[in-house]
Amino acid sequence: MDKEKEHINIVWFKRDLRLQDNEAMHNALAADTPVLLLYVFEQSLLHDPHYSERHWNFIKQSLQDLNNQLAVHDTRILIVNSEISHAISTLQQFWKINTVFSHQETGIKITYDRDKHFVRFCKNNMINWVENINNGVFRGLQNRSTWQKDCEHYMQQAPFEFLPKPHAFLSSETITKIEAVFDIPLLKTPKTKNFQPGGTTNGLKYLHSFFEGRYKNYNSHISKPALAKKGCSRLSPYVAWGNLSIRQIFQYAMGIRVTSSYKKQIDAFASRLRWQVHFIQKFEMEELMEFESINAGYHQLKKKISQNYQQAWFNGKTGYPLIDACMRCLQETGYLNFRMRALVVSFFTHNLWQPWQAATKHLSRCFLDFEPGIHYPQLQMQAGETGINMLRIYNPIKNSREHDPEGVFIKKWIPELQHIPTAFVHEPHKMPPMEQQFNNFVPGKTYPLPIVDMNSTRKRASDTLWELKQNPLVKKERFRILKKHTHPNPKKKT
Question: Taking the complete model, does pTM exceed 0.90, yes or no?
């Protein structure tokens, strides 16, 4: 008779790559059963067009950081190339798996379908799968009647501490042995200064440096493409991939606020933390937002696809310097401040009159902090297809002069404009012939001419979208969305 297999529990890491304030980890350790830590580089996600190498490198760096922290506990994460169900099935050859602990993931359809499949797999294999709330986003809500109160309560609770007992985890030696039956990925990543490095240790460095002084310029620098690099927290990738929890950051900020003379800046920052949770909650409750506008009235909006327009936008060659500088910066660094993100999406959907769906995967591959619950609601809001938000069609020239007046950001990312006079950096095509000759500048050759007329395309978009906003279905959907996603006013009589 075969010896009975040892019972273990598993913590399945996904977008929660941290030890502190990790409820899945906390619950696994509380069960008093040996714990195996697992990360699966899922092949289906590795080939999904939403992701790019910059994401996987960030994750690898985060996993290395976790393993450095875990070394003192004589353990590390089992990191494999597989699919989650296949990985668990392989581990069942060696252990009886009682429970898999993880966080709920508000992700794209491919991860949603994976989770549904994993539910069936666990049921068939008599494994308990426990999913925990992540960052105050609640599953299964039909409306927001209690969400704000529940979310605030969640944020006020003490973060979960990482306090493992001796021998709580399977040993590093055991993990080394079990790796023999898996395809193990290489965790080495290329050295680059272009992208923020992953890991909780790096996330804490950004958190501390922000509140040691950078936050004082938060309100004045947040919209400036060059200054935002230091004036903003730069914490978004560490939140997106779970190196830090929203709750950790929020409570740290509130602690600084007690003695700070810059309370307005901290309050503005904290409001954006709440804003982030709000939008992810919206995406959690609207599963089709990945593919179509939340407001069904806008499904009738048809736009003619132009591959030429889209490629010019992708490559930063539209002839509008601030747009092009933003797209090139994003491609090289994975970062762009919020106002500029809104600007480039507005230009794509309004001036180029392209469907927001055509921008989703390119931007997600570029954004180091790609977070589906932020990505899709924001694309739709900037495209003017929610019916509940004010229509904003950003003027790229006005924004250029206002937020990059000396052309510092533009000249950094568009080398062909580095040496032209600042007076023409915002609209180089308007440079007089004599100036062109003096500066060795040929419009349309040195740098592209504007691919569309800003004024006429803006008018077309504005007229079309304002007219559509009066459509009966758009109005009906607007009421539905507000009823579902806004906090009811207790003073208002029903």
Answer: yes
pLDDT in tens, 395-450: 999 999 999 999 999 999 999 999 999 999 999 999 999 999 999 999 999 999 99
Please report, for residues 46, 93, 413, 472, the alpha-carbon distance to residue 2 in angstroms, rounded to integers and kept in the order given.
Answer: 38, 12, 66, 69
Q: Name the E strands within 136-198.
A: none
Q: Which is nearest to 169 in space by CA: 34, 11, 6, 8?
A: 34
Mean pLDDT over each residue of the chain, to the nearest integer: 96
Positive or negative CA dihedral for 369, 370, 372, 377? positive
Bridge partners of residue 59, in order along the sequence: none
Q: Tell me: pLDDT of 147 over 80.
A: yes
Neighbours of 230 (CB within 10 A): 13
Strand partners, 103: 132
Q: Are the beta carbons of 44 and 83 closer than 8 angstroms?
A: yes
Between CA 268 and CA 250 the distance in angstroms is 12
Residue with the two structure tokens 């941290």: 18
Q: How many CB atoms lie within 10 A of CB 127?
A: 18
| Tokens 């392209």 -> residue | 354
